[in-house]
Design a protein that fits this description.
mainly alpha; DNA-binding (chains A, B); DesT_TetR_C (chains A, B); homodimer; elongated; transcription regulation (chains A, B)
Chain lengths: ~230, ~230
């Protein structure tokens, strides 16, 4: 069996073991047994428990990022892009519950260097979403620059006239919206992962409506749907 | 000086020290020095570094929860309640940057029992927001039960007819919206804490518009404002 294939098997076993038992409690013996290989081989390939855990985080991060990127349809209408991106995210999480558990629970709660790896993924997703929102506003019906400044006494730095993204929405606010959206998706994915009676479609629909129509829209029966 | 006052001084010093140096690097010597007391007194009052850290997390959790609860105006219009609650949250975070750093960064990245303490705070905030959203929908112009089910192929568990909150929106979806909103607020607060040129009002306004008007509203110039 080629090294690459064997290594992926070890990572599969490690991701599942870390997710189920937790980083601290999971032993290299457990992981070798789950992978059906000897412990020395795990050490030979992945060096140490810390390196193995880091490799797991990176693989799961890359896979999640790739799933979201692949789901977005460049050039589609903004709401469709958002719908597809969110669906890509929630579907990947639903299909990879162990990977998600490693990312959101294990990697973030065992200090450095693991937390930094997850932060990197988060930064990439925020950048992706920031680009999508800026792009959407640049094609918006009402140019975002026409939108009044956020707060009555807001700082000059958030003046729509300064540091604007294409279309006119202040860059600061585009980035803030992206952080809000990524945080909402993350929080919802943590809640819904493996929850009986809630599918990836349900989570996507809830968040799509929240992010797109807003609570006011929902309360007034204005609901977004993919078929509209 | 009464014990209670002395203890609060120690906690003030500890919160700041943990926030600035991190849980691992902060020593009881650092904390005693910052509090202007002897190290044995810190041990006498707070027992151990772990107990001291736990006491810090609990104090900051309680203060944040109390600030949000105090900010909400019972009986006010739903958008005003949301605006006030978010403003209470972001203002408290802006006024307590060390407390927030302890909660979102230190407490969550150093395993148990600390992560569980922060989870407790999160659960309380989600419950509070769930109640507010359910209440808002129960008074909505269009009863939420009239809103079509989320996804074409959605599960019977999310059928609006079953397990409805007052007003008709499925309980599952109200709770999911609350998780999304709390996650968005948390993510934005992490980004904005101490960010130059962004005030608590800016963060509140951004998230209020996101949560209330949605991206579609923003793109079409429908922006919520407290003065409308």
């Amino acid at each position: 069996m080629p090294r690459h294939v064997r290594e992926q098997q070890m990572l599969d076993a490690a991701v599942r073991t870390f997710a189920e038992r937790g980083y601290r409690a999971a032993s290299m013996d457990d992981i070798a047994e789950a992978a059906g290989v000897s412990k020395p081989l795990v050490y030979l390939y992945l060096n140490s428990k810390e390196d193995l855990f880091t490799a797991c985080i990176r693989r799961e991060s890359d896979a999640l990022e790739a799933a979201v990127r692949a789901a977005v349809e460049p050039g589609a209408a903004p709401d469709r892009q958002l719908w597809k991106g969110l669906h890509g995210f929630f579907s990947h999480v639903a299909d990879h519950p162990y990977g998600w558990a490693v990312l959101h629970r294990q990697a973030r709660t065992h200090g450095e260097p693991f937390a930094a790896e997850v932060q990197l993924l988060r930064d990439k997703l925020v950048d992706l979403v920031t680009g999508l929102i800026a792009d959407a506003f640049s094609r918006a019906a009402v140019p975002a620059a026409a939108v009044p400044a956020p707060a009555p006494d807001s700082d000059p730095a958030s003046d729509p006239a300064s540091g604007s993204a294409p279309g006119g929405l202040p860059e600061e606010e585009v980035a803030a919206l992206a952080h809000a959206l990524v945080g909402a998706a993350e929080s919802l994915a943590i809640r819904e992962n493996g929850r009986p009676g809630r599918s990836a479609e349900d989570a996507t629909s809830t968040l799509m409506n929240f992010a797109w129509a807003g609570l006011d829209g929902l309360m007034n029966g204005r609901r977004w749907s993919p078929d509209r």
